[in-house]
Amino acid sequence: MIKIEENKDLISNIQNEAFSFSDSSGLDRIIQAAGKAKFVLLGEASHGTSEFYTVRAEISKRLIEQKGFNCIAVEGDWPSCFTINRYVKGYVPLDPLETLKNFNRWPTWMWANEEIKDLITWLYNHNQLIDEHSRKAGFYGIDIYSLWESMDGIINLLETKEAAELEAAKKAFACFEPFHRTPENYAVSAALYGEGCEKEVADLLLKIKNKWEHTRNCEEESLNLMLNSLVAVNAENYYRAMVKGGPDDWNIRDHHMVSAIEAVSKYYGENAKVIVWEHNTHIGDARATDMKEEGLVNVGQILREKYGEDQIFALGFGTHSGTVIASEQWGDEMQVMEVPPAQAGSWEDALQKAGPGDKILLFTDDNRELFNESIGQRAIGVVYNPEYEQYGNYVPTKVSLRYDGFIYIEKTRALKPINIPVTLS
């Protein structure tokens, strides 16, 4: 960690380059900078901070209305998020609270919260004013964890079609049945004893791609089939890698999320523009952190390498102090926790010492070198112990190389969860 007395130049540079986030003109500058990209990646420093969600929502609304962005893709399960997509597109007569009941996998608060309810209500109302289906804004989940739910979704949909692929789907699903919908059981059996279902899900994906990849319909059934099949293949691979340790499971997950983003983008056509919501750890370029030394890649890095830096705009988020929703251990009840003042010498500490108030920084060729020295940046996950954060919650970061911009909110508040029964599987 860089000592605070060595941060004087950094603090001065922040004072010179940052602008206030106290009025709409700050967001206007972000929209202008981000709107030219094909993929806008909106981060967060925790999975439980209200302002990270509400500010991303406001940016997303403007990108959709003013810059022609087609959809929001989030760090959530495909099946649960597709229920939201069906609601906001008007495919099913649900209300916002009903759509959020599917988010019953721990940590439920990530998407079953009042902030998301407000956003999807806005998306629904926005889409109601649009006649052309292809111009309605969508909402999709790009994460990898919904292996069993995705298999359920494939079979349920194919049964309505009396499709030839149904037998392949049932065969793949039958292969997983002995593991009682428990990823850990499957992971151990597949990785250590070779009793996996890799061939079954690969065959299923191939059959579905061959028939359904270029099929279009008004309720996006083909996209739903394709993405659930992609989840099945990559989740199976992810759970096998999880037991072995090393970087493979992380890398499989982030490569999957990129594949999901690309599949959604392809569905919207050649000129599609996609907004992505994920933790800073996923959207900020891994090469600008210590992840590189650990052999880890992430969504931000992969997209930049594939599409070029001018097609990606990554916006990081951070706070100095406040409250957050998290748990002390995996699967425990959620709590509202105090976020202590940022550690001395950290990026957030420098932002606070540069003067009071919320701030925005945009990084360009003219100022990147002012912010490209490694400094600790706070990252809070769904499991958090504030008293121990100095030992593992600060990521060595070259901020201006990790992101294209940064939003700093001095004091933040916890998300407002919606009470939903929790499952851990």
TrEMBL record:
Q: Which InterPro entries match?
A: Emycin_Estase (IPR007815), Hydrolase/PRTase-associated (IPR052036), UCP036794_erythomycin (IPR014622)
Against Pfam families, the record matches this protein to:
Erythro_esteras
Q: One of this protein's GO BP terms?
A: response to antibiotic
Q: Which residues form the signal peptide?
A: none
Q: What is the name of this protein?
A: Erythromycin esterase
